[in-house]
Amino acid sequence: MILSVLSGLAYFIGPAESGAMNKEMASWVQPVWAAFLLLSGLIGIYGAMIYRSRLVKGMIVERGALLIQAGAVVFYGGALVIASGWAGTISAGAAIAWAGANIWEAKLIARDLKIIAEETASLKESAQDAGD
Q1: pLDDT per position as a tens digit, 87-120
Q2: Distance CA 58, CA 131 (A)
Q3: Is 102 exposed, middle or buried (0-12, 13-18, 19+ CB in 10 A)?
Q4: In the chain, what are the domain boundaries?
Q5: d(CA 118, CA 45)
């Protein structure tokens, strides 16, 4: 997530890259991509910071950040293919792999949240039975 923040800042405030593929894209694509990278990174860092005190909330926040970042990466990969045609497919493939990794991790977090909810319900039920 820190890399996402740094990349977002670098793209957002730095000079636009002079690569051939970036020259073909609409001028608004790079700032939008950078803003979503920055936003998802900041949200993910926030989620990681509250993990210790609020595990479930931290996991939910991190999952949201991963999904935002996945959308941003697919957006940028799609923009590369639209702007550059076949020349952008390798970069778009890398973007899809990155998004896939984010979605996979978000799915694992969802699985873990389900386990926590089931265990919590089971513990509450056991405590209630013991109290009766």
Answers
A1: 888 888 999 999 999 999 999 999 999 999 999 8
A2: 31
A3: buried
A4: 2-131
A5: 27
Q: C-alpha dihedral over 35, 36, 37, 41, to 10 degrees? A: 110
Question: What does the DSSP assignment read for 5-53?
Answer: HHHHHHHHHSPPP--HHHHHS-TTHHHHHHHHHHHHHHHHHHHHHTTTT
Q: What is the DSSP track for 60-106?
A: HHHHHHHHHHHHHHHHHHHHHHHHHGGGGHHHHHHHHHHHHHHHHHH
